[in-house]
Write a structure and sequence with these properties.
The protein is an all-alpha fold. The protein is 71% helix and 0% strand. The chain starts with a helix and ends in a 9-residue tail after the last helix.
Length: 143
């Protein structure tokens, strides 16, 4: 079972690395998606992703690309950790010997079990996110 713990830790580190590398791209994407529409004859705020990144860094500094990173870091790292740990549990349940080579079906089964574990972690946050996305100002929830 120490393999499960090592995989859990590796998943957490991997999830953190994913967020650290990918967050600047997400920041640029969100800034482009939310920029105001230009009036006829006006230039858009950004002409593309590279322009957005350059202007953001020039105006606000390099670390502006990492604004809002705490929430994904807190959410994704445990998600990856649970997935990696769940995969290790799935393998452990199917192996008769730790050095046994896994078949394709056994690996698929381990991944499916990891998906179930991951869903337990992910669904509550997705539910809240969906409720916030459809929420309109001034209306009360009926459910």
């Amino acid at each position: 079972m120490s393999d499960v713990l090592l995989n859990f830790i590796a998943g957490g580190v991997g999830g953190s690395c994913t967020v650290i590398v990918g967050h600047p791209f997400d920041t640029v994407k969100v800034r482009i998606q939310t920029m105001p529409l230009p009036k006829p004859g006006e230039k858009p705020q950004f002409t593309g992703a590279l322009d957005c990144a350059k202007r953001t860094v020039a105006k606000e500094g390099f670390f502006a690309l990492y604004k809002g990173m705490a929430a994904p870091l807190v959410g994704v790292s445990p998600l990856f950790a649970v997935f990696f740990g769940g995969c290790a549990v799935g393998k452990w349940l199917q192996q008769t010997d730790p050095s046994q080579e896994m078949t394709f079906i056994q690996n698929a089964n381990a991944g499916a079990l990891a998906g179930v574990f991951t869903t337990i972690v992910m669904v509550p946050g997705e539910r809240v996110k969906c409720l916030l996305q459809v929420q309109q100002a001034g209306s009360a929830s009926s459910g």
